[in-house]
Request: fold
Amino acid sequence: MKIEEIKLTDHINEMWILFSLHREELATNKALMILKPDWDTYRNLEKLDKLLTLALYDRALIVGYTVTLIYKNMHYSDLIDAFNDVLYLHPKYRKGSFGLRLIRKTEEEARKRGAKRMLWHGKVDTVFSSLMPKLGYSVQDIIFGRDL
Reply:
């Protein structure tokens, strides 16, 4: 098992199954949340070195990933934030420390890119939401949502 930085847009086909599993497991309104990534925006963020994508490999197969935006905070322009867009680990690989390794490696690589703060979002009452406080994270904001 290894974690490597990749360009997300170079691995669209091989990651599509994981994206689909991710949506099926976590999308809160499947009728509204149609899987259709904005590849042009991802590509542009990669060109600007504002996108950090890490893949967890089992041999040559990607079994997990994190995609994180690295950007200057618009309200506190001296602050570089790393905001995790997506984190997913195939269910077969959730036992053990693979998820924790992805989180730690994301933090490490974000720090190397100048980030001073790491932000993750997750669903309420999940293993992830109970894990993050144990890793030293605290609630920063609450996101409220409603379909329009």
About this structure: The chain has four helices and five strands.
